[in-house]
Amino acid sequence: MKKGLKLPVSIVFSNIIGWLFRTKSCGILQRRSRFGIANFANTLCIMKKVVFLLMVMQAAVAALAQQGWLTPEALRMKREQIRFTDNQLRLFNGRGAAHVKRYSLTGIHRLQFPPIELANYSFFLNFYEHDADVLIQDNVPDLWEEWIRFGSGTDPLGANFRSGFATIPVTQDEYWEPNRYVRQGTFHKEYSRKTVSFGIKTETVASAKADEVILRMVLTNREPQPLKLSLIPNQQVLAKDNAAASSRLSPFVLAAGDYQVSLSSSIPDVDSRGWYVEVPAKGSREVYIAIKMGRKDAATAATDGAVADRFDGAIKDTRQRLSFASSRLPELRSDNRRLEDFYRRCIATMLECRWERENFIINPFWSVGSWVFTITWDNSFASDAISIMDPASMKRTILVAMKEGKLKSTYISWQGGGDGIFYIQEPFALKTMIDAYLRQTGDVAFLDEQVAGKSVMEWMKSWGDLLHVKYRSPFTGLMDMGRKNEELIEMRTDGYSGVVPVVNGLAVDLYRWLDGWCTLRNDGDASKFRGYANDLNDRMHAKLWNRSTRWFDNIYPDGRREPLYSNHLFDLLGTNAITDEERMGIISHLNDQEFLGPYSVYSISRQDKVRWDLIDSDWGGGGSFTGVPLRLARNLYGMGQGPLAWTILSRFSRYADYFPYLGQNLRANEPLQDESSMPIQISSGAGVEAVMFGLFGIKPNIDGTMFVNPHYSLELGRSSLQGYLFRGHSYSFEMDEFGFTVSRDGQSFGPFSYGEEAFVGKDGAVSIVKKGLASPYVRSYRSYFVNRRSVELLADAGTQIRYTLDRSEPSLRSTLYQKPFSIDKSTVVKAIAIKGNEQSLISEVAFEKLHFRDAANSGNVINRYDYPSITPLFTLSESHLPLYGIYTLMDGKHGGDTYRDGQWIGKDKDDVAFLLEWDSPVEVRKVSTRFLQYQPEWIFTPLAFTVEVSLNGKSFKKVGEQSFSIKERFDKKEIVSVVVSFPKEKVRYVRVTAKNMGVCPSWHGGACGNAWVFMDELIVE
Question: What InterPro entries does the entry give (predicted)?
């Protein structure tokens, strides 16, 4: 072991305990004397070792405490689990970033150490074994790309044994940690001269102290003869046309423009090819290689004895960065492990945006993500989390936006200066950031701090005046964007322009904020901003609210008024600019057929057939800008809408199963981040805030007091938030199904009941404030139906629900909700939650019954039949279960020619069978579905598809069956439709079974392996 190299505490413990109980001299654990009494010497030996063990454990616990709860090991993720491409998965240590190539043991590419940015840089090592005279190439990704694109070169799967193909090492295992990527591989080949057999393990890190990337490599020789290798470096920078954009000055130095990339190693011996190293027989050799960036013609050396120390320093620096965050932010502990992991990854994503370089305009510099700009709008989503972690940096970030943006630019480069891109969100985002800073610090004097000739408050007043002068329409009196769509949000379909309601609502909120601060400061401008707010507020409600759609309308330049269903409008839920009626109307659209996806929130409602854009996840439809659904969850919690907020937060947390950090605009219907957008987004900090200020209901105030009102879900089990630092005190919060507690500096208060709000005074005294009840949440997969619809109502624990179905207002005398109920006609469900003498606001959802013909043709309906309940009669495979679960069988969308598109339900070996159950008898006459066949991937049609029906669910009648003949060696993708028709039957149950052949047939390449059956849309008529 290298001097100074630290092992994980768990490994230290296991080795010490093994040593304690295996040592033969301590025979007390192995034998007794003839008289059954332990030998005294052995007992003394054990006692000494126990004392030593306790000392080591004490030191280890101290080391763990110093390390914190946010560690590389806690964030580790296997490469096969990660859905990022090589261009999206990076290593970063605050100073610069590098990417690694999967399936290569040494491949490194895409260097970013501003001002040096080499997006088309690549590096890998070849190994020349001298005795066997063989070149081993570690460029599998390049070979594979060439083979796939052009059909020439080396097929990596044919390497090492086909004549003329390259000789390559084989990868075995890869995993990512923050700023550390570990790869394990092997090479084993018999030659006439000798057998070459060795293992390779590499670790790659980016330095936090210098502009370099360091590769640690351990070579393990399995043979009884020395392994004699030349390590041959290969590096290049390509232009856009794949032509060389660099020149090779030596095997170790590459020139690219005004910069150069030089290589140095801990290996002292150099030959004509590169570095020369001998690995002893049956032994190992550890080597280090540094990739250094610098100015052209800087001094270089192929050998460097200090590389190993710098590698260890980079590992230490990464742990310190993580420890810094974990010492400032509270720790989430929960029986819901996925939520725990998600919370940690939100923090890790924020750290991926924290640059610490001496040549940046401010240090630290919070970038928007992998683009090295600071953007106020994006920062605002994480402003509370940043203000807790590093309030001084939040303060500087606000000031630099004012100084460099100058009311004109939103993007601020790391070098300073705006680039002319402007978002109308700028003043609203600045308000959010200032509020967060003031809440966490109480530093009200910040409003008077001078920057670029004005105080912070004067800058904000200037924003208020600019909005009024530049954007207020003389015709409507409303904020009018005209056709400046790009100043609002970028969409590839038109329509988000003119008078946009969210801009008007946020402007009202800003004006009221300015009025409030001006009043407190005896500023005469208070009345001006109050007038702006009141006038704009009245016009917005009168001219934009649409009661029939329960949404705000846009007014377009040609005078048209119509709604555009964008998730941007949900920002108004965090303001006081809308009424309770409007608030409840807006959230009524948060359902599975409009905005809610299986992972996130769609940015455009799925019901908008004109504008919805699958690929443009950011704002066009297919997903959301990352901060939006997380802020939405926080705001819903703040409204008391706990069940709905948890639905959104828990779905979003599923991304933590697939991504080590969170990207800019993840798809709402699958774990996918497109490559044209950033794989890292600072707005992920909104996930931290959704947990702290939403789920746990922490509400800190500028005056140093605090409210606490958690929202419990059974899926949380027992959960706690430990170590929230606020105004010189440490707070912890714990909740389970029975209630919650609040602790201040170790002193616990409670337990309290849900629905009660704890108030913590400046002196630490805790009292209880009663809160209004949250409205019930109507959960249904869709609001359109044909035969019958089951309706489920949810509310917070300890409350009862009363509802009406006749459009009347619910009261204490209305029907008591006890279990899901069915409706068979168009119905408006209105419900309230009741606890004691309290009752909530009314929830309202309209369900519309359609005829079969209308259902088939309507753009508002997703299928042509009513929902039965669906029960799978086989064990579902999580990896091949569509994103909407089994109800994907009834979403009206057919699968494509790949089982990975989220529309196919598959099972290997077993039959694919489902039981459909209706609430009351229905008449059926036809069942149809489709099957996917692609034999190269072991996917076959079933042997038969059988339909059975029943009235009682016990005795079933077979009404039809279709058999299939399996085509031998059919290598094309095929979608096979099946329709089973039969005389009309009155039934409550339909059982369908697709008979799986079990194993692949003898003529198939996967003979005896499990065969798969994949089914998509199931239609019952």
Answer: 6-hairpin_glycosidase_sf, 6hp_glycosidase-like_sf, GH29D-like_dom
46 shares its domain with 187: no
Query: Across-strand partners of 375?
Result: 411
Residue 388 lies in a domain: no
pLDDT of residue 298: 84
Give the amino acid at 449.
E
| 87 and 145 Cβ atoms separated by less than 8 Å | no
| Residue 1007 dihedral angles phi and psi, to the nearest 5° | -45, 135
Nearest Cα to 289, choosing from 272, 271, 275?
Answer: 275
Q: Inter-axis angle of helices 391-405 and 426-441, to 10 degrees? A: 150
Q: Quick one: 228 and 342 in the same domain?
A: no
| Pair (266, 121) in one structural domain | yes
Report the chain's C-alpha Rg in angstroms.
32
Q: Which residues contact 163 (CB under 8 A, 6 or more apart)?
A: none
Cα 504 from chain centroid?
31
What pLDDT was estimated at residue 590? 93
Q: Please tell me whether residues 811 and 905 are part of one structural domain.
A: no
Residues 766 and 781 in one domain: no
Domain finish residue from 827, 857, 887: 857
And the tokens for 1003? 């003529």
Neighbouring-strand partners of residue 214: 205, 290
> What b/e readout covers 953-987, taking b as 16+ CB neighbours within 10 angstroms?
eeebeebbeeebebeeeeeebebeebebeeeebeb
Any bridge partners for residue 991, and if so which? 915, 948
- The answer to whether position 15 is within a domain reads yes
Structure tokens at 587: 């959230």
Q: Is residue 470 part of a domain?
A: no
Spatial CA neighbour of 499 closest among 491, 490, 488? 488
Is 236:263 a contact under the CB 8 Å cutoff?
A: no
Q: What is the pLDDT of residue 895?
A: 77
Q: Look up the domain containing 40 and give its range.
A: 9-67
Could you tell me how far CA 898 lies from the centroid of its own chain? 24
Peptide bond connecting 629 to the previous residue in cis, omega within 30 degrees of 0: no
Angle ∠(221,225,229) on CA atoms, nearest 5? 60
Looking at 695, 712, 731, the residue that finishes a domain is: 695
Whether residue 244 sits in one domain with residue 113:
yes
* 831 within 8 A of 801, measured Cβ to Cβ: yes
Tell whether 664 and 758 lie within a shared domain: no
Q: Please, what are the averages of pLDDT over each run of 10 residues along the chain (1021 residues)?
A: 41 45 39 41 56 57 63 96 96 98 97 95 97 95 87 84 88 97 97 93 97 98 97 91 79 91 96 97 98 89 95 98 97 96 98 98 97 96 98 98 93 88 94 98 97 97 96 94 78 89 98 97 97 97 94 92 95 95 93 92 93 91 96 96 94 96 96 95 98 98 96 91 97 92 94 88 88 70 63 83 92 92 87 88 77 41 51 68 60 72 82 84 89 88 94 91 86 88 92 92 84 87 83
CA distance 692 to 331: 10
Torsion angle defined by CA atoms of residues 959, 965, 966 and 969, in that order, rounded to the nearest 10 degrees = -160
Q: For residue 426, what pLDDT is reported?
A: 96
Q: Is the peptide bond before 115 cis (omega within 30 degrees of 0)?
A: yes
* Dihedral, 219, 224, 227, 228 alpha carbons, nearest 10: 160
Is 377 a domain residue?
no
Q: How much is the pLDDT for 57?
A: 55
Q: What is the pTM of this model?
A: 0.76
Please list the helix, strand and coil fractions of the chain in percent, rounded to the nearest 5, in that order.
30, 30, 40
Chain position carrying tokens 């420890």: 323
Query: What are the beta bridge partners of residue 199?
Result: 186, 220
Tell whether 339 and 263 lie within a shared domain: no
Helix (H, G, I), strand (E, B) or coil at 924: strand
Q: How many CB atoms lie within 10 A of CB 800?
A: 15
**Given the structure tokens 């919650």, which residue do they identify?**
740
Overall number of domains in the chain: 6
